[in-house]
Specification:
With 204 residues, the protein is an all-alpha fold. It has helices at 6-22, 24-34, 39-56, 62-76, 81-95, 103-121, 130-142, 149-162, 186-203; strands at residues 3-4, 101-102. It comes from Virgibacillus halodenitrificans (Bacillus halodenitrificans).
């Protein structure tokens, strides 16, 4: 894979949506353990709406597609995750405006996405949020110079699993303090699905 094109981003969203629909219950139970139990519902609704949107439009540029993904997630997903995922995609769109999604540009776009999420959620690494997975992937990608499916999926998986032993200090789970330890963060798990889907597109 040399650079991501519109059809790749479409597949990325399609595979992400499939994984989220299939694992909706898993996301819900994780959020039942340390949140309010709606993460599966929120994400399933959001990514279904993303697919509905992408299926009614024709895109020439990756940035335009990413912008519509962002807007859809922001407007259709209630809760914290919608605006945060929306921000991530909006930042990617801005970074890739009038650019090809080459490895260099795309990894920069992921870095900007992380920075946007951090800023919007006022979260840093280690607070048991989706930032943990996004930052780990961004860091790993910035050290490489080509798309590597294995590195992306392994990095995302390790970061997702690392949230289990963390104590939440942001989001609803933070209300549980020590009792948030012992469960993976729901937003980190949905972010893992997203990067696992990206890796599958890259590997094709
Ligand atoms: P809500 O918590 O509003 O019900 P969701 O359940 O859909 O929203 O999403 C919860 C996820 O959002 C968490 O698992 C976490 O990964 C992420 N999250 C929540 N608050 C923040 C924050 N301030 N910064 C970054 N991510 C956050
Ligand atoms: Mg929730
Ligand atoms: Mg909620």
């Amino acid at each position: 894979m040399d650079h991501l094109q519109v059809n790749h981003v479409y597949q990325w969203m399609q595979i992400t949506n499939d994984k989220i629909q299939k694992n909706k219950e898993t996301l819900t139970s994780l959020d039942q353990a340390i949140g309010d139990g709606d993460h599966g519902i929120n994400m399933a609704r959001g990514f279904q709406e993303v697919m509905n949107k992408l299926d009614t439009e024709n895109y020439e540029h990756v940035a335009d597609m990413l912008k519509d993904i962002a807007m859809t997630l922001m407007s259709k997903v209630g809760g914290a995750a919608g605006p945060l995922y929306g921000t991530a995609f909006l930042k990617m769109s801005t970074r890739l405006k009038e650019q090809d999604a080459t490895y260099g540009n795309f990894s920069q776009a992921i870095i900007e996405a992380v920075n946007g999420v951090k800023q919007r959620g006022k979260a840093e690494i280690g607070e048991k949020t989706m930032v943990d997975v996004w930052s780990a992937v961004a860091d790993q990608m910035s050290k490489e110079n080509h798309f590597s499916a294995d590195l992306i999926v392994n990095t995302a998986k390790e970061a997702m699993e690392s949230t289990k032993e963390m104590m939440a200090t942001k989001g609803r789970a933070a209300y549980l303090k020590e009792r948030s330890v012992g469960h993976m963060d729901p937003g980190s798990v949905s972010s893992f699905y997203l990067f696992e889907a990206l890796a599958e597109v890259i590997a094709e």
